[in-house]
Amino acid sequence: MFSLKLYRHALRLYPASHRDEFGEEMFLVFRELHAETAARGLRTHLRLCARETAGVFVGALREHWRLLGGDRFSQLFSTRRFTMHTEFRFPKATAVLMTIILGGVILAIQKGEAISASLRGAVVPPIGPIHPVHSVFVGGILLGFVFFYAAALIGWTILFAMRRSGLHRLDETVGKQ
Amino acid sequence: MEFIPLTEPVLLILLSLAGQPRHGYSILKDVEQMSDGRVVLSTGTLYGALRRLLDEEWIERIKEEESPRGRQAYRLTSQGRRNLQLEVGRMKNLTRLANLRIATKEA
User: Fold this and answer.
1) I need a surface site. Which of A117, A138, B90, B91 has the fewest CB within 10 A?
2) Phi, psi at A31, each rounded to 5°
3) What proportion of chain A, given as a percentage, has pLDDT over 90?
4) Mutation test of the interface with chain A: which of B8, B28, B47, choosing the one with the most A Cβ atoms within 10 A?
5) Bridge partners, A47 (sequence order)
C-alpha cells in the first residue's frame, strides 16, 4: 500500500519526541481511515490523502516550532490569530523569511536589468525619456529594505543576547522575593 | 490557568471525551458526527491537540487490556471536565444574549 508507506515516511517530519510518543498511534489511526475510505471510492480516498498530507505537514511544523520555544498552549485556545509574545525570543523563522524576501527582491531587480539590457539591442518603439526618479525609486526600495533588515537583525541580536544572559529573569527573581 | 475560549476542534474533542474514554479513530469519527461532517480532523491536527491537552492535564491516557499495541484511549480529567463546563456555560450565556438581542430587534 503506497499511501500507508508514504504516511509512515511523512511521520518522520515530526520531531523525534512527538514521533516516539504518538507516531505508532497516528499510523494505526491512519490505517483504519485508509481501510474505511478505500472501500468508498477513489475520490474519497484521494480526499483523505490530501487532508492527511496537509495535516502531517502543518502538525510537524507546529511541533518543531513548539520545540523551538515558539508555542504556547494559549495559542491553541486563543481567538486571536496573532499574539505578541512577552518573552525575548530570537525569531528564526522571521529572519529566514526576510532573507528569502531580500533574495527575491535582488533576483527580481537582476532579472529586470537583464531584460532591459536584452531590449537595448532590439528595435522597440520609443517610450519617451525615463525620468531619473524611476531609477532612483527601485534603488531606494532596495536600500530601505536592506537598512530595515540590518536594523531588525541588530535589534534581534541584542534581544537574543539579553535572553541568553538571563537578564530578563531578574524581574522574575525580584517578583518572587 | 487563565480561561480562554476554546477553538472548535478542541471543544469537539473534549465533548467527544466527555461521554466516555475514546481512542484516536473513535474521536475523529465522533467529532465528524457531532459536527454533521463539517469538522473533519486530520490525524496531525488531532494528535497535536491531544498532545497539548495531555501537557495541560485536561485529558489523560488510560490503559486498555485488550487494545492492540500502540493504541491508546484518552479520557477527561476533572480539570478538563471543569474547563469544558466553563466553556459550555460561556456559550449558554452567549446564546441567551444572542436570542434576547435577536428577539428585541424583531419586536
Assistant:
1) A117
2) -65, -40
3) 13
4) B47
5) none
For residues B27 and B61, is the Cβ–Cβ distance under 8 A? no
CB A28 within 8 A of CB B68: yes
Confirm whether the ipTM is greater than 0.90. no
Render pLDDT for A131-174 as a digit per residue (tens, 0 to 9): 665 566 667 777 777 887 788 888 777 776 766 665 555 554 44
Cβ of A25 and B4 within 8 Å? no
Q: Which helix (H) or strand (E) holds A58?
A: helix A42-67
* A63–chain B Cβ distance below 8 A for any pair: yes
8 Å CB contact of B50 and A18? no
pLDDT digits (tens, 9 = 90+) for A18-44: 999 999 999 999 999 999 888 888 888
Is there a contact between A10 and A58 (Cβ–Cβ < 8 Å)?
no
User: Counting one residue from A and one from B, how many pairs have CB atoms under 8 Å apart?
Assistant: 80
Q: How far apart are CA B38 and CA B83, in angstroms?
A: 24
Cell numbers placing B67:
487494545
Q: b vs e for B62-98, b when ≥16 Cβ sit within 10 Å of the residue's Cβ?
A: eeeeeeeeebbbbebbeebbebbeebeeeeeeeeeee
Distance, in Å, from the CA atom of B107 to the CA atom of B105, rounded to the nearest integer, reads 5
pTM over 0.80: no
All residues at 6 or more sequence positions from A24 whose CB lies less than 8 Å from its CB, including other chains: B69, B70
Of B31, B106, B28, B83, the C-alpha closest to A26 is B28
Contacts of B55 in chain A (CB under 8 A): 73
Q: Which residues of A touch B46 (CB under 8 A)?
A: 29
Output Rg (C-alpha) for chain A, integer angstroms. Answer: 25
